[in-house]
Amino acid sequence: MSPARTPPTTRQHRKRDTFERLVRSAHAQFCEHGIAAARVTDIAKAASVAHGTAFSHFPTREALVSTVISRYAGQIALRLHALAASDTDLRTILEAHLQGLCEHEAFYARLVAETPSMDADTRSTVTGIQSAIASHIASAYRRGVQDGRFRAMPEAFVFNLWIGMIHHYLVNRDLFAPNDSVLQQHGPQLMERFVSLLYVHPKETPQ
pLDDT digit string (tens) for 64-84? Predict the structure, then answer.
């Protein structure tokens, strides 16, 4: 028989609440000002906590950035993981990916633009999340190849083509969709064109 869990104390509740407010505040500041430009002082002020309190939860600024990335970018990987476990088709996987990106589009646009200049640990966090997403897209694509719907191509190329298109539109969203969501406006069309490139057309089918 396992021992009964000790209920969290008021202090633990406050600590958890402060942690969550800092993460949400950092996310908002990153969206508005950029990840590199956002200051911990402003993040703490927006979260209604002292500057020193922020560092009691996150020993470095990089730790805070990695936590926010893991929270918001990691949500997509978890969503796709649940879908992939049920042998979902590629189109459904891509739709879920787009939906997750749309939910925090401003943050992802900043993340795509600024990742190359981030520290090695933070880039590693981003790479790990992208690798999880890539594996789920690759699994759905592989099933399409096996049943003869998709032409066979290197799986890394397929993912890089998809993510390259999405990142191009995110980075240039002011050009493609001024004052609007670029992924809501262009995402479905991008997905249809991408999937059409994968399909085996009748003239390619061996006689």
Answer: 999 999 999 988 888 888 787
